[in-house]
Amino acid sequence: MLITKRKNYLTEFSLKQKLVPTILFVLLFLVGLVILLQYELLYIGAYLILWLVSYPVIYAGTCRYCANYGKPCPIILEGGMVHWVFDRVNKPYGMMQLIWASVAYLLRIVVPFIIIIQNQLWTWGILYGATFIGFWFSHLRITGCPNCVNYQCPLNPGTKY
After folding, report:
1. In terms of residue numbers, what domain contains 78?
2. Total structural domains in the chain?
3. Residue 56 located in a structural domain
4. Is residue 138 part of a domain?
C-alpha cells in the first residue's frame, strides 16, 4: 500500500530532507528534455509549455489546500511558491487534490512517454520510468507523506478511515 508509517509532523522541510526528491525531480525534467532533444523542436516546445502549465494546475488544485501553504515543500517549486500565485483555500485537502496533482504530473511526463513509445526507446523509457518512480517513492515513502501534517489527505499516515 502507498501509505507509510508516520515519522514526524513537520510544517517545514529542511534542505537535507528535500535533497533526494529534488535531485530526482530535476533529473526527471532533464532526462525528459534529453529524450526530446533528438526530435523536432515542436516536442521540446510542447514539453516545456506543458511543464510550465503544470504549475498553475498543481497550485490551484492541490497546493493552495495544503496545511503547509506558503511554506517550503518537499517538492521544489511547488508548495513554497503557491502563495505568490493563489490565495489559500480553507477547505479539506482530499482525494480531489490528489487528482489535480496527478493531472499536473501527467502534463509533465506525457510528451517524453509518447516519444518513448512511438520510437521504441526502451532504454530511455526504463531510465525515465525509474526516475519517475524513484521520485514518487522518495516523496510518498521517505520524505513527504511520512512527515506531513495534512491530516485529511488520503495518503497521510495519520488519516483514519
Report:
1. 15-147
2. 1
3. yes
4. yes
On the 0-12 / 13-18 / 19+ scale of CB atoms within 10 A, 158 is middle
SS3 string, the chain, reads CCCCCCCCCCCCCCHHHHHHHHHHHHHHHHHHHHHHHCCCHHHHHHHHHHHHHHHHHHHHHCHHHCCCCCCCCCCCCCCCCHHHCCCCCCCCCCHHHHHHHHHHHHHHHHHHHHHHHHCCCHHHHHHHHHHHHHHHHHHHHHHCHHHCCCCCCCCCCCCCC
- Residue at 9 is within a domain: no
pLDDT in tens, 102-111: 999 999 999 9
Q: Could you tell me if residue 156 is inside a domain?
A: no
| Cα end-to-end distance, the chain, whole Å | 14
Q: How far is CA 60 from CA 50, 65, 69, 75, 146, in A?
A: 15, 8, 12, 16, 24
pLDDT band for 161, please (50, 70, 90 cuts). Answer: very low
pTM of the model: 0.84
Neighbours of 14 (CB within 10 A): 10
